[in-house]
Amino acid sequence: MKNFEFKNPTKIIFGKDTIPKLTKQLPTEAKIMMLYGGGSIKRNGVYEQVKSALEGFEVIEFGGIPANPEYDILMDALKIIKEEKVTFLLAVGGGSVIDGVKFLSAAALYEGDEPWDILAKSIRTYKGMPFGTVLTLPATGSEMNSGSVITRHSLKEKRTMGGPGLFPQFSILDPQVVHSIPKRQLANGIVDAYTHVLEQYMTYPAGAFLQDRIAEGILQTLIEIAPRIIADPTDYEAASNFMWSCTMALNGLIQLGVPTDWAVHMMGHELTALYGIDHARTLAIIAPSHYRYNLEAKKEKLAQYGERVWNISEGTIEEKAKAAIVKTEEFLHSLDIKTTLKEYTEDYEGTAETIAQRFVDRGWKGLGEHRTLAPEDVEKIVKMSY
Amino acid sequence: MKNFEFKNPTKIIFGKDTIPKLTKQLPTEAKIMMLYGGGSIKRNGVYEQVKSALEGFEVIEFGGIPANPEYDILMDALKIIKEEKVTFLLAVGGGSVIDGVKFLSAAALYEGDEPWDILAKSIRTYKGMPFGTVLTLPATGSEMNSGSVITRHSLKEKRTMGGPGLFPQFSILDPQVVHSIPKRQLANGIVDAYTHVLEQYMTYPAGAFLQDRIAEGILQTLIEIAPRIIADPTDYEAASNFMWSCTMALNGLIQLGVPTDWAVHMMGHELTALYGIDHARTLAIIAPSHYRYNLEAKKEKLAQYGERVWNISEGTIEEKAKAAIVKTEEFLHSLDIKTTLKEYTEDYEGTAETIAQRFVDRGWKGLGEHRTLAPEDVEKIVKMSY
Known about the structure:
Two copies of one chain form a homodimer. Chain A is α/β, with parallel strands linked by helices and 386 residues long. The first copy, chain A, has two domains: 11-176, Rossmann fold; 182-384, Dehydroquinate synthase-like, alpha domain (Up-down Bundle). Chain A has helices spanning 22-25, 40-43, 46-53, 71-83, 95-108, 116-120, 183-201, 209-231, 236-249, 263-275, 279-293, 295-310, 317-334, 351-361, 375-384, and strands spanning 4-14, 31-35, 58-62, 88-93, 131-135, 147-152, 157-162, 170-173. In chain A, the strands form two sheets. A six-stranded parallel β-sheet of chain A has the order 1-8-5-4-2-3, with helices on both faces. A two-stranded antiparallel ribbon of chain A has the order 6-7. The longest helix of chain A has 23 residues, at 209-231. In chain A, 56% of the residues are buried. The mean pLDDT of chain A is 96. Chains A and B meet through strand 1, helix 8 and helix 9 of A and strand 1, helix 8 and helix 9 of B. Strand 1 of chain A pairs antiparallel with strand 1 (4-14) of chain B.
């Protein structure tokens, strides 16, 4: 096990009918900006519950944050935050709204001239404007971590940011929000969380036995609840386990003391930036090819995953590893998630070269747990994903 | 899954040669009391490392905190803390030293007349004096939770306390401290952590699938590393997994949204108070009888534990449950831990009645996950443990 540091101060309030608890989490003198997305919260009752909990507070609303939170829109919110002297941000939404609020938390107290630098120059945030979240879509884990991904369409860029100042002060997780989520989003959420685990687990054995067990436990739980939640999102037992698994998949615990990969996300982000494909689906496109391409480096963990998560008991390490990738694809297909690029766009020729070139243009850092994957490796992996 | 709230702000600094990082964790103006136990830290090099990290700080030392931290000794420390206007407490030790420091953290800022009331009247601490820990003995998990157990020999009492103000600000976990721990303490630590998991897991199925998986993962990890660490405490891979498993066993995560039992601890504490038997060994005495006595209520989870942790695949639910208890006893015996009271004291007759009476005298609250175990149940369970 490698050395690690861990501190996650976010307060989680989890369970049925917990949104009214919001009132007591807010500083009494706060001037609040409440941010949300495309308006689904107005149809599923969350908006009313939040507004009711905010009675007596000074609140400015800012709706319309899109999936893949857009820099230009967030800059409009930032202007209002500064003009109106907002002191507390409240994200009501899924990962996109929360990620957007994290950028605003950082940007509101940023002392440089150009907030884009936070993303372009990977400036870490040690102190942001305090914020909390009411989660409406389990998937990204953003409700209990300090990372964020922001998109800037005018540059076709999708960039990451973060820092210890960007943990939510609290996050309210009422699994009943799952009841009204469309199947497509549920499937995306399951795949997003599942891939988050894989990115932190599918590397090389690092002697972190407990972290492996917990990672496998999240995967097993997602596999167990996936058909239930897709069949009936009002199944509270399935919804609550889905929601908590998504949070635990990316709250920092399973990455402690282990190498992490994240190459699937790096390549996937490019597919979203280029074609607007749902984040989770880009992961489903890339992951199987990535694991096949890197089979030699990852086969021990792939086989362990096959044995423990998919009960694959026959064959050599390599055979088990390959069978585990097939099982993963079957799981994705069972959620009606397609796993090749050509099923999403006819315009896929040249994508591999374009993505490799984009990495080169940004200054190549090397991908994968050893940071040894070169542009030509990326090109091959993306081509295998066509 | 039940509703829950969770916030654990302790910063963990984990790994090889991490004790020098202590310097940067302390407030620069702090007047520090460094507390430790019987002096093993002076033999294993930890004392020197800590002193070196404390260079330049104003430090008062207070050694001699015994296993089962003793109220009267802690009151001596409290007097010095007040006289010398100490502002920061540093626990260098195992669970006993850390628990003692938690009591002092609470008592130092307690406004009542009689600090014993914090224990006797279960007064929760919302703000304590800030403290950190350097862990020298993996076992109790006290380094990442806000609970404490204090003994007062003059009253033959062992009482619990806690509150959100009693999380360590930081805990430094260097698995190399394990290298010099005697076998007896290593076995105690494994059993302590193992039983912590059982108390939060071995109840009735509550639909918290992920918490179950994590609990099972900790048990599997402890089973995996136990023979290695007993055979060779300098096995760093085993030591690091042992240490992290002990922390994760009682940092709050696996109890989220599930019923918890803790009856084994409640009865075990009495055996320590009466006979001075090592805490972990009292748990090993009580646990098998407790699970046999409550088989009907706990058989689903016992069988699940048998299947997933011990690979028991044959038999009915009840047969698997019984086999799982036998496996647990065999595991304890493999660590050279005896599981009946008579192996620890010849003077055991009447113990069951005495313990039941002590619970009655304190005001009976009911034990077990349903809080329905009566004094006569306790009497029977303890008798089964003779």
